[in-house]
Structures
1.
Amino acid sequence: MQKQILMSREVLLTGAIVLLLAIISTRFPAFIAPSNLANVFNDTAPLILLAIGQMIVILTRCIDLSVAANLALTGMVVSMINVAMPGLPVPIIIFIAVAFGALLGMVNGVLVWKLEIPPIVVTLGTMTIFRGTIFLLSEGKWINAHEFSETFKAFPRTELLGLPLMSWIAIAAVIFFSVVMSRTTLGRAFYAAGGNPHAATYAGIDVGRTQFWAFTISGALAGLTGYLWVSRFAVAFVDLAGGFELSVVAACVIGGVAIMGGIGTVVGAMLGALFLGIISNALPVVNISPFWQLAISGGAIIIAVALNAQANREKGRIILKRAEHAT
Amino acid sequence: MTDTTRFIPDRLQSPLERRLKSWETLLLAVAVAIFIVNSFTSPYFLNAWNLSDMTFNFTEKAMIAFAMALLIIAGEIDLSVASIIALASTAMGAAVQIGLGTPGLVLVGLGVGLICGAFNGFLVTKMGLPSIVVTIGTMSLFRGISYIVLGDQAYRGYPSDFSFFGQGYVFWVISFEFVLFAIIALVYFVILHKTNFGRAVYAIGNNPVGAEFSGIRVARVKFILFLLTGLMSGVAAICLTSRLASTRPSIAFGWELEIVTMVVLGGVSILGGSGSIPGVVIAAFVMGLVTFGLGLLNVPGIVMSIVIGALLIGVIALPRLWEKWRT
């Protein structure tokens, strides 16, 4: 049992992250200063939020490629609301962002649930539709820093106990969803629906509806991240976060989420996101061109998915052995 | 749960009736309708040279779509095709710099395509990894390598006789690309519909375990299919590079979506097991006509992508809605 905990994906990944930090610190010691690590965490917060949602979707044997487009569309919508009504308080903006994002997620969810269209087709389609909609709404124009109200821009930067609110939101989401996934009926249903859909159906779980809620949660988190993203960088445009969905899937796969469903943890997804976040923050520091980013995350996906397949294969064997011993 | 009772009709449909009610016939009617609408809405549409230009909208994508159709029928998918184009094009650009002539460039393009296809095939068939994740990974890996090589630069200076592949005309308005498209369509029609290999592709898509037990070498067939998509991406890379006469790492960005849309629109089941080459050919014309018609009406590209995204979801959703509404 102890060995199992020691060899668990989360511990291994934490080890890999520590190793990565150690290597970087040999070339640039200031990188591991607490204040810089806090910055890296804050930069990675959007990826963590999206990875949590994506993990839940992947648990149910689906995939959501529309998250980045959802983020950009919701970001544009709340930006336009802010420009039109600068006086609207931030909590209401956040509520609109979460609700609008969830609504977009529900569109994916309904198509997967009610029409049984493969999730990859649905979200490839909605991805382009969402992006196109941003263009129709904004007519291709950017919304720039000076057009936002001050309170709109200040929220994610506001510091609380030394960390910006952006980081606190990511931490809160990790804790909240850890509890949801392990302590609620819905959370367990996500695992059951992906682990064995037939058994889940016999156990009284509506697999389609569970997938619908997974997409809704993923959409809501993408919407929330949409507001945080545009307010932090104080800009909204059509190609905002373009291609980010790949980083999100990469974070999940690196975090040990099995693409065939049923396996994965919130902490794992967070660690996967942090791994990528550290790499992308470290590249400029150790003088590697940012153009390496794409190839590195692609390579990381392939290596991680190969490792996952290996680990899961061995896990199956261990269960068999234990069963043999029991008899 | 799905209903397992099968309805046995009192009377089989006559071959003519079956053909009239097929997806291909419906699609052909749509193509003709779009053609007629286009010729009324724009005075520039019915012009031999304009129509010839229109074919460039789909020829390169369709070449890959034929190989992709076989792959999807066999129950796999390759999302890295557009990135293979980028990598093959970058390799050809680099080959120009060291002074290779046109025949050498063609070999480089085809070779890189084959190597990339073999890499995907190896990961999927030998390592047993899910093709969706593998090719999402290689999608960023292949394009990532192009970004590492080129950064924000571009390769130019292709030899003048190289321009024939993308800009040459065989006879009057019939371009070389269009002839190549027709030949490749014919080759794939024969492979899929007239050979043992084609039957094996259907068998694998319908029941991989059953296919294995009936003596089909499933892994080998799938490996060959990945090689073919790689090879066709190489061919498309040669045509596109020749047509644009320059290479940037963002070349053919997002094409994988349009290619998958073309295949699905052509009546290939995304779940595998069914589909036909004539369907994909007509779908290629439909998509070419739609984008060309919208282009003549000055609709921006990103709005066309909404139409394509909606087409992708719509063609799968409508038959299912129709079924639901009838029962």
2.
Amino acid sequence: MNTRVLRTELKRSVAPWAGAVTLLGGLAFLYSLSGPWWKGPELWTAQWTSMAMWTRSMLVFLWPLAVGLGALQGLRDHRSKMPELLTSTPRPAWQRAATLSGSTALTLTSGFGLFVLVGAVQVSFSAEYQHLGWLPVSLVAGLALVAGAVLGMGVGRALPFALTPPALAVAALFVTAVLRMTLDTVPPSSSLPIPVALLSPAVEGVRQVLLTFSASVHVGQTLWLLGMAATGFALLAAATPKARTLALTPLLSGAAVALLVLPAAPRETYVVDEDAAARVCDGRVCVTKAHEGELAYLAGPGEKALRLLRESLGAGAPAAIRETTALNSPLEPAERSRTHVIVDFADEAVSGARGEELTRVLVGLGLAPTCSSRTWGSSGTDAEAAAQSVAAGWVFGDLRPIDGTMHSAAYQMKKARPAWKKLKALPRAEQHSRIKAMRAAALSCEAQPLEALTGGGSR
Amino acid sequence: MRWTALYVRSRQVPASLAAAVVSAAAVWALSGGGSADPRLPALVLVAGTAAGSIGLGGQDLALDRTAAIRWAPRRAAHTLLIGAVAAAVLLAVQATGEEAATAAFVVRDSAGLAGLAAAGAVLFGAQHAWTLPVAWPAFALFTPPGTGVPAQVATWMMQPPGTAAATWTAVVLAGGGMAAYTLAGPRR
């Protein structure tokens, strides 16, 4: 295909529109709305994998539009009443099909590529952890747009009616709407069988930074999309009804193979990215590689908090600080440890605090670890925040609320002050054993730490 | 009568009508006979108006314009009928099962979407008119719920009936789209 043909093709088709819709539609959605992609560590411009996932999640509406615009493209020859003329030329039909689908593929991939580039430029400045593990996510997304558009073209050519493009677009919209996976469970799953849900080219945003797709998901989706593109191309080039029927083979076989390859269980679909979760340490303070940049402000206060904990707890004190790498399910308690202070950057009490304030938070987490399950971007319950503020106050000598939790300072103080007064009224040795009881209660996750602090110790 | 029959045929109304009925029945069957989710009735109305929108232009626009008949009232009636038929199909289908959408919801959405389709026909031609009434709901279907006025305007077809911002958006779209189409006709 030489450039002159391509230029003419671009001028005389909806291909430039398809590219523009992909780029501007995605950007408009992300920038004009405030959603979970602007919040917390899952911010779409914070990490490479998050960026790839959030940009791909836009396929939920971009893909149906690509299918519809492709169908419009496939109808063009019929609309200009020239198929008869074209069949009389000696040039093979697949060459014309290649020109038509090539131009649309070019604009769609450049549109989506630019969209990803907008995110990539921002990520390359902000992320400490540079890697290429996100590329398959975006490559499959680009392939999905091209395959959808080519399938649309093929169907448009096979069924040359004005009704075809809107019908295809609405049907594709219905498919992506029905096949959405839910992020409310961990790992994300679906009410439909997982392999069927994974046939949708879109993904559901990001729930946890360290989660990514397993290799079999990429392989299965690629096979399915290649089958889809092959069917579209064959329909575009087919001239006889028999050839059109045969053209459906790649789509069906692609679907069949994909359903076999795609994982059946949620835990095999989303996996913890081992490279991103690798531990990076500064002394006794460890974070994941994905959050290497946070180590700069965490290390100093971390060491100080560990020293203070050692002084106040003695031999049983946590020996190190590390970031959680567990899947945080809303149904299960958060990760806790007797030997480590576990931090989670989704908790704004940690990620928002610096210096002395952060030391307080870490001491609080060391003495009364958060055990309540985390829902999206939240910290622990109000009672836990109050227990942590009392614990930190006991070490530092003055009671102050923990900033950055979902619970207001006044509300925390209302809960914390009575416990604080009771604790301070006790002799020093008794205070010590109450603090230890609170830590044990929080670690076991079975009793309320504040109750253990005030009265539960005498049980 | 003869004129109407010819007009209906030239605007592919039977095919559109069949597509609207089939898509409504398919959505309803797959959703298990209605649920409280406002996205399903909205999707049915999108399918109905998108199917109807292909008839907003004839086979030969230049020939149409030479006809010595007043197009304006006919165009207005056609736009109104697209909305009315989409609404009627949805109401008929959901009459067989549990009621998912109230009449106010259906009237607001079908009027707004029909206006959007008419605007699409004026801007891009009848063949491409469906892009607007499909693209906006596609965008809105997946928008996270918000309470501000901009969010209500962006997701007007999903808001509960009686939401002022959503109703006014639908009124503006219906009025504006219909007026533009009535006066200007489809783009050539």
